[in-house]
Amino acid sequence: MEQKEIHITYSQFGSVEEMNAEDRELVSESIKAMGGAYAPYSHFHVGAAVRLSNGQIVRGANQENAAFPSGLCAERTAMFAASSKYPDKDMLSIAIAGGVHGRLGSTPASPCGACRQVMAQYQTKSGKPMSIIMVADGKILKFEKVDDLLPMIFNSI
Fold first, then answer.
1. Which residues are within 8 A (CB) of 65 and not within 5 positions of it... i.e. 6 or more apart?
2. Which among 5, 25, 29, 75 is annotated as catalytic?
């Protein structure tokens, strides 16, 4: 037997002002996107913003439904909208912001497994890394590629 390890690297920021202009804009758009959340059950509003290779930013918000699990996460609403509207453009980065009753939480919003797999699929499609920014009040985490959140990506098809 040979034992292996997986290591990831990420950046942590104390405020959006520490980030470059493009990332600041994407974070701001993800926070604005929280306003489009429909979360009557969990009251947890999530906004996501995807930056495309043509410079466009596409936003999405979580959408809950009484017929669980018929709702959809903010990340997937943003990515699916981006892919539908701009099918030939690569997704370069995504920012995710979330919190109860639309106010940023103290812990960064982390994408679920299904959203991570969708991110992985679009990253694989583009052949370029997609960065992921997770936003909280006073704490922002940035991962340079989906592999950092989803090691051993499923891509056997």
1. 71
2. 75
Q: State residue 152's pLDDT score.
A: 79
- 155 Cβ partners below 8 Å, 6+ apart? 120, 121, 124
Predicted confidence (pLDDT) per residue in 18-37, tens digit: 999 999 999 999 999 999 99
Write down the pTM of the prediction.
Answer: 0.95
Domain 14-148 has CATH 3.30.450.40: no
Cβ pair 25, 57 in contact under 8 A: yes
Active site residue 25: no
Decide: 60 and 96 in contact? Cβ < 8 Å. no
Residue 11 burial (CB < 10 Å; 0-12/13-18/19+)? middle
